Amino acid sequence: GRAYAEQAIATNSNDAEAHYLMGLIERYYGNYAASTACFQRARAIDPKRGKYAEAINDNVTIQRSNIAASQQNRM
Fold first, then answer.
1. pLDDT at site 70
2. How far is CA 52 from CA 2, 31, 67, 69, in A?
3. pTM of the model
4. CA–CA separation, 20 vs 31, rounded Å?
5. Which residues neighbour 3 within 8 Å (Cβ) at sequence distance 6 or greater?
6. Residues 52, 58, 59, CA angle at the centre, nearest 5°?
7. Separation between Cα atoms, residue 29 and residue 57, nearest integer Å
């Protein structure tokens, strides 16, 4: 998936779906800052697609859950 997304972005940097796909890939690997940046780029290209904003919000929720779980594991 990463190679496909990178090629799509290289071919057309205004391909919102390619940036979205890259965001999903980055999220899968736990790279939330990079993931959010990809989703933000997708939203900037196509602000009418609500799934890009939802993906950004999902990252925030996942990160908060991870922090809470980490803090509980320390107790």
1. 87
2. 18, 17, 23, 26
3. 0.88
4. 14
5. none
6. 95
7. 17
